[in-house]
Design a protein that fits this description.
binds the ligand CSC[C@H]1O[C@H](OP(=O)(O)O)[C@H](O)[C@@H]1O; about 290 residues; eleven-stranded mixed sheet; binds adenine
Amino acid sequence: MDKVEIGIIGGSGLYAMPGLSGLQEVAIETPFGAPSDAYMVGELDGRKVAFLARHGRGHRITPTELNFRANIWGMKKLGVEYILSVSAVGSLKEEHKPTDFVIPDQFIDRTFARIGTFFGDGVVAHVGFGDPICSVVAKAFETACKEVGVVGKLGGSYVCIEGPQFSTRAESNLYRSWGADVIGMTNLQEAKLAREAEMSYATMAMVTDYDCWREGHDDVTVEQVVAVMHQNSGNAAKVVRAAVAALPKGEKSPFAEAMKFAIMTDKTMIPDATKKKLDLLIGKYL
Ligand SMILES: CSC[C@H]1O[C@H](OP(=O)(O)O)[C@H](O)[C@@H]1O
Ligand SMILES: Nc1ncnc2[nH]cnc12
């Protein structure tokens, strides 16, 4: 199959990508197990893209149960350079209103039950993550929001919680005191693994609620999240489509060599089985 340059991960409320033509369902097995679903590979305005429903079609997989490694590995296997993620988030600031899009550029980790690295089993690597988001993808989202005529704010911190429960009010207020912008349950491990796999990653976060901090307002519920997603999913799809068109063609990700100096382990001491397993990611450095 031809290289698929662009990957789209659809979150809560976005389980398919409208406008994809010549659709092919591609099931991928990875050394880390199965991804959430088959990749829907097709063309969007002349660009080859792969769409993955993060929680699987029908929303069957909790944030903690997500096989982040398999999902990101599958994208790499397809040849993806740029990953566009779409997520529902709660707002931690008055100014981020339901239906607004925020394109976060930082993360705060509040997860505790996930695997966020491809490494281990005899190979140690430490990759830079000071700028966890790819500015090329983030700018493509920003440009796309302008084109579609929706609010799309570039920058902000995304607090990633373990879930599946929403936060307590004390937690929500704590995150606000940290100056964080939005809250969700899925994006941090994707960003970490995309970096280790030398792909670009950014999220278009759609605000669906004010979490539980806003006095005089109802606390977040799934019903509320789904209602806003339904109301705004047309815009989300339009923005993703415009962002795909705004991405550079035939160019490697700016993170294509992110792992060049990240591997600590003496190469002669990495077990053969691990070398074989991680060949797709780091074979070129060993
Ligand atoms: C349905 S509310 C909580 C759920 O929504 C977000 O999902 P995603 O990031 O995949 O859009 C959040 O992270 C939770 O998984
Ligand atoms: N308030 C919230 N907290 C965590 N994840 C969310 N996804 C949508 N709204 C959320």
